[in-house]
Amino acid sequence: MAQFPPAYLAFLKENHIDPKIYEKQKLQPRYARILRFNQRTLSEITKLIEQIASEAQCAVALVPSIRGFLRINDPLVKLNQLEAYKAGDIMGIDISSGVAAMSLDVRPGDNVLDLCCAPGAKLLFLAELLEPHNGKEAANTCGTVTGVDVSLHRMATCRSLVKKHSGKNKQFIRLYVQDGRTFGIGAPKAGWWDPQVVQKAARELPKEVPVKPWFGTKMMQSKYACLGTDLYDRVLVDAECTHDGSLAHVVKYERWGWDRLDEQVVNDDRPQSVPLLQQQLLENGWQMLKPGGTLVYSTCSLSRFQNELVLYKFLSKHSDGEVKVEPIELLQDGKDGSPVASPIWQPDSFTDGKEQEIFARMQNAVRLDPQVSGTSGMFIARLRKFQ
Q1: Its pTM surpasses 0.85
Q2: Which of 348, 366, 352, 213 is nearest to 297 (CA)?
Q3: Strand order through the sheet with 90-92
Q4: Is 238 annotated as a binding residue?
Q5: Does domain 1-26+94-187+230-387 have CATH number 3.30.420.10?
Q6: Residue ranges per domain, the chain?
Q7: Residue 348 labelled as part of a binding site
Q8: How big is the chain by its Cα radius of gyration, in Å?
Q9: Which residues form the active site (predicted)?
């Protein structure tokens, strides 16, 4: 096991995180996602999997419950050396991130807001989930994905991924370099994708100049599209965190230097400032969600201060009639080979009836514990807005 610095070990102890989880990193399979999965035939997908298995010299299979995800059994496989990676057919992404994105239950036609979108792997997946999956769904259903991130550097990476890998989905993706705590731009105006609708409305548009996306197609950057005021059908708040649940991320500090790990997790005011940031992101994401919509709050941390206690404060402000924490069905009982979820953290005893009631409301939230799930660590809460 890695020899973590004392400050980090103290952080793990305070958050009831077993340091042994990091031993799992070398034992877990690699995961990747087949890009443009919906646009490929079954025979093309089968051929691609056979090619990867032959090159990686290990078993490779689709994860049935997480659309387009591959399980590569050898944890030492270097994805960037595979021909499928070089050709832009696959990209690396942990299955825990796929679970968070799929928990939104995105449907064709939805307007989706990814409030902390960079570096962009989940955003690309959300865009593909908007595509019609069968003939029953209207072919002209045009949903959108709006990505927001405060970091220009990270957003540049996201833009590169969109340009390189999104294919035809690029037409309904737009990106804003803004602070997710204060972002307040509505979903693109209905009919933004129809030239006739846009042309007909041109004479009646107000003189005000709306805030245009930092990146998007001409149609997405049109004045008409940018004047939308509707709230979003789905909101993902995959919040900034200390990344202590990302096994590969933490283990890399053994090479980079443990002082950088201290700076990332426990230095200065991080234990206090990060949960506050997360609370603000969650609250603003909730304000941008329409009634009847779904919000997913997730982190790749196993810290109770960044997960259960953030959710606790949120539920303390919002009644049971306004918000419910819903089950994440694809994780129930590990069906179809999906990761097995673990219960959330809660105190050994409650201080009063209110605390007990709020923790009871959040029991459908889940943890992905690397010792049980076979994935990196993740906290996921799926919230439905009723008013």
Answers
A1: yes
A2: 366
A3: 60-62, 69-72, 30-34, 90-92
A4: yes
A5: no
A6: 1-26+94-187+230-387, 27-93
A7: no
A8: 21
A9: 300
